[in-house]
From TrEMBL:
InterPro entries: NAD(P)-bd_dom_sf, Sc_DH/Rdtase_CS, SDR_fam. Belongs to the short-chain dehydrogenases/reductases (SDR) family. This is SDR family NAD(P)-dependent oxidoreductase. Gene3D superfamilies: NAD(P)-binding Rossmann-like Domain. It comes from Shewanella aestuarii. It holds the Pfam family adh_short. Keywords: Oxidoreductase.
Amino acid sequence: MNSHSASSQAILITGATSGIGLACANYYTSQGFHVIACGRNESILNGLNTKHFLTFDITSAEQVTAASIALKQHLSQHDLQLTQVILNAGTCEYIENVFEFDAALFSRVITTNLIAIGYCIEAFLPLMAKGGQLGLMSSSATYLPFPRAEAYGASKAAISYLGRSLRMDLAAKPNQAIGVSVICPGFVKTPLTDKNDFAMPMRVSSEQAAQRIFAGMEKRHFEIHFPKRFTFILKCLSWLPEKLLINMLAEKSTK
């Protein structure tokens, strides 16, 4: 991806205090990269084996801007190239009763999973080195409509579109040559998915997810999706007529 040595390549990862973000921070560190772990919990960040950390809330535009100023100074002081940014931080909440639609929940999820990504892109994209790669965390849930996933699915579908659109505009800037990867995991064992009350077929560990993300980012893949068997099934099902999908996937009320 980049002619610089791994130790001179800075990798910024948001949501690095747990789940996929934590696993990515650990894996990139093990490969010799200068990892800048980001999150809200300073005590966890301070305990990581990464080179540097930034503490901020991605939903606060002011905190994200302050983090970008600190990041710019850190890159300059240590002669680093910001070659990858993985915007992984996010949340998941479900609409339990569609007839009592929880607009506050919907707003929380959209703000964290989408609006906050805009803050991060504004702050960190200008700091990326030529030939860098931006990773946006979407989900394989975008391939199909799932019950109760109005907020989560909508936020991740928007991220997928955002990534495709960004890719178009960045391709028109050959002097920068920054690529975009949209990351679409299947079920990954994390503190968020541990709360799910439904079956999660072919679930992989966060460590396995990190290795797949690492490989996909290094190869500058447009879409990084895994596990492949699971995502292939979802993509095939997405070709079915909508009426058939509703009959297959809708949760039938017993009341």
